[in-house]
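re: ur question from earlier - yeah i can do the single chain one, its not a big deal. heres the input i used so u can compare w yours
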Amino acid sequence: MIVLNVARPAGEADPVELAGAALAAGLDGVALADSPRLFPDCLVETERVLSATPARLAGPCVLSLGLRHPATVAGAVRTLEAHHPGRVLTVVGRGESSVRNEGLAPPSLRAYEAALDVLRELVPASALLLGAASGPRTIAATTARLGGVLIDAGADPTIVGKAVALARSARADVPVWMFVRAVVTDDETDADAAAATVLGSCAARLVRAPDWFDVPATLRSGVAAVAEAHDYRRHGTADARGAGDVPAEADRFVRERFVVTGDRRAVAERFAAFSAAGVDGVVLAGAVGGVLDRLDELSRAVRDGLTKG
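and the output i got, formated as tokens:
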């Protein structure tokens, strides 16, 4: 299964229309970002998409447990699942722009684990429920508590394989999906431009777990500068890169670790490697520059790669 993560500022695009474009390109559905100051409400839009389109899957991704109580999340998911059985995708997480833009910190891992326990108890098993995770502690906690994980571990097949293996170390049949920033590009200039909007939030993941992501010691301060330059008030937009001196070498390192670029063949080869690592499904990041412009090509490349892998 392959879905497109819809992360467009409120009023810029209709999620139902974007879902139609995703389906026309050969994808299976859409996942809707949750950040109240930036995007339309993901639960309301999920109902609109599932009612108005034949999408196989649609739902919130990533629903912020830093802002929402797990009991209210479970109630919403139960209601959606009752109206659209077997078509609801729910991905929860600790929160990124959603909490930062309210002046809050993401919940502690212990508090997050407690919230996952509530969700697992209250959400029906028929609904596809995943927890977003990047680092090893969150991956392990999510698979243990929730039983399904959306890995956001970048685009390096070795690290992705390590993350999948960790997720399945306790239970071999746990569903493992992957959040991937990918776009078909013609050259390095295109690749740099496409990746620019997402590099800061990617770098933040590297900063939190540099050993897990094998960040060289010589690049760690530069990667931190990339993360600090990200403006979460404009997360998911072309203006997310704020002011600041960012080393070009660090920018390129973050791009290569977190963004799949290149022609259709190169993109397909990378997704074949992800499939070989054991990934069950893919959420494509819609905030990467140029994704919608070349969505048909990207969809074919991803599908080809996952099939061959």
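The two ends are 14 Å apart (CA to CA). not sure if urs matches, ping me
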